[in-house]
Write a structure and sequence with these properties.
binds guanosine-5'-monophosphate; Rossmann fold; alpha/beta; 190 residues; eight-stranded mixed sheet; globular
Length: 190
């Protein structure tokens, strides 16, 4: 998506060889018009897939998940994060390691919000090592729902999370795949 790539180049800040900050439009301040465009783009890529629910994880995925759900006219569920493991029988729960916080967290979704008949599209802001995604895929599996695919705004391809999930047969659409951040330079993948 050309406009997204231009925005990353203009406003993104490379903090290290593996971390990109896009706080001005995605992760801290949100540009609502642009979030709508991102949501429409993801929704368009999964048009005809009969999605019944969009799933993300708090907090940064929520804005784009919301606009994707708006475009697809389906509800949006965000998994909540908890530090300590709590096996609530009323929730699906998965254990993940947070890339940005460098800590283990549990993510959970109340069982009343995803059912076995659901066709779920997972949406997130970033895909790095794939932990967040793996946790959400696990929740879809626990619900017995169908995973239609994954829509990602920025995929850092060099961190390998996408490859591992694609090898498991998961369809992942990334709007801006990044091949490298080495030397403070954003290089997009083909
Ligand atoms: P993963 O679980 O794939 O390793 O990391 C995904 C999560 O970590 C995303 O939901 C995102 O919130 C955060 N994240 C990973 N890499 C970056 C990054 O370079 N910049 C920012 N702002 N967040 C990131």
């Amino acid at each position: 998506m050309r406009k997204l790539k231009e925005k990353i180049l203009a406003e993104g800040r490379v903090l290290s060889d593996s971390v990109l900050k896009v706080d001005s439009f995605l992760n801290h301040q949100v540009d609502p018009e642009f979030a709508l465009e991102l949501g429409r783009e993801i929704a368009g890529r999964f048009a005809g897939s009969s999605v019944t629910k969009v799933l993300t994880v708090e907090a940064s995925g929520i804005a784009v998940a919301l606009t994707t759900g708006l475009a697809l006219q389906v509800p949006v569920v965000f998994a909540k994060k908890k530090k300590a493991a709590t096996q609530d029988p009323g929730s699906y729960c998965s254990h993940i390691f947070s890339f940005t916080k460098q800590e283990a967290v549990d993510i959970y979704v109340n069982k009343s919000f995803i059912h076995s008949g659901d066709r779920v599209l997972i949406v997130d802001d970033f895909l790095a090592q794939g932990e967040a995604l793996r946790g959400m895929v696990e929740i879809v599996r626990q619900a017995g729902a169908t995973l239609v695919g994954v829509g990602i705004v920025i995929e850092k391809v060099f961190q390998g999370g996408g490859q591992a999930l694609r090898e498991m047969g998961v369809r992942i659409e990334s709007l801006a795949p990044i091949a490298s951040l080495a030397g403070g330079v954003v290089k997009f993948a083909e």
